[in-house]
Amino acid sequence: MIDLVPFDLQRDLRRLLQIASEARAARSSDFVHPGGLQWLLRRSGQPGFEVHLIGRDPLAFVVNDSGYVIVTCAPEHASRRLEILALIEERLRLAGTSLIELSVWEDDADLRDALVARGYGWSGT
User: Fold this and answer.
1) Domains along the sequence of the chain with CATH
2) Which of 26, 43, 44, 69 qualifies as a cystine partner to 75, CB 3.0-4.6 A?
C-alpha cells in the first residue's frame, strides 16, 4: 500500500529537494527541466496543481499540473515509479482526467517501452 501525503511547503520542501537532487544525479528522474521544479512549486495551492509525497518517510514525490505528471523517486526506489504512476492514473481517472502527459528521457528505452505498454503514446516533444 502506498501512502499519498499532501505536500506541505514548510514541512516537506527539504525532503522533496533531496529526492529531486538525488534522482537528478542518478538520472532516475523523469523530470528533465533542471530549474522547472522550483518554478512549478510557486503554483502550490492553486486549482489543478497538486504535489504529494509518497510515504510518510518519503521515497518519492508526484507533481500533477492539470494532467502533466511528474513522478520522481529516490534512486533506490526508482523501480517503483510505474507502481506510483498507476496510483496517480487511477486518482486522475476518478477525477475525470482523460489525458496525462509525462516527461521521459529519450535514452530511457525501458521506461518508454513500459509506458507504451500502458497505452501512452510518444508526442515527440
Assistant:
1) 4-117 (3.40.630)
2) 26
